[in-house]
């Protein structure tokens, strides 16, 4: 939906998924997409809210790239990208995110305990390395946890807490 914002025509895009809420914007006249924390060449997507939500947002952003005559895509992190570069980043991100629930369903179908299923999902390689300032937050672990939780239904809060503690213990080497 297009809105007037002073001298600018702006289209808002729902970018929920990474967080519980979010918005991206297309500045229509200068041809600039502001996707928030998506389409970044310096990190891969990480799920703080909903894996399915992140996937849906990436699909909306890729559709916006196709629908608009863009000059630049300016993510919240990393350099500005040309539309073709941003499309490639988004497609690689979707491929990665599609593999996570597939691996989670396979692991759970084999009868793996949730902690072992998370380890199996963690083995899915992200589309690109991330910088240390992102990796410190355990992006792959969060994504694996989200995939297992969504694939297996909502895990009980105490099970999820034990799994997180197990991952932290193994990550820190305690």
Secondary structure blueprint with pairings:
Layout: E1 2-5, E2 8-14, E3 23-27, E4 32-34, H1 51-67, E5 72-73, H2 83-109, H3 114-122, H4 132-135, H5 139-151, H6 157-172
Parallel strand pairs: 4-5
Antiparallel strand pairs: 1-2, 2-3, 3-4
Q: CATH top level?
A: Alpha Beta
Look at the helices and sheets and give the structural class.
alpha+beta
Radius of gyration: 18 Å
Provide the CATH architecture: 4-Layer Sandwich
Work out the helix count: 6
How do the strands line up in the largest sheet? 1-2-3-4-5
Low-confidence stretches: 154-158
Give the CA-CA distance, first to last residue.
51 Å
User: Could you tell me the strand content as a percent range?
Assistant: 5-15%
User: CATH superfamily membership, which one?
Assistant: Ribonuclease Z/Hydroxyacylglutathione hydrolase-like
CATH topology: Metallo-beta-lactamase, Chain A
Helix content: 40-55%
Outline type? elongated
Structural domain count: 1
Element pattern in H and E: EEEEHEHHHHH
Return the average pLDDT rounded to an integer.
88
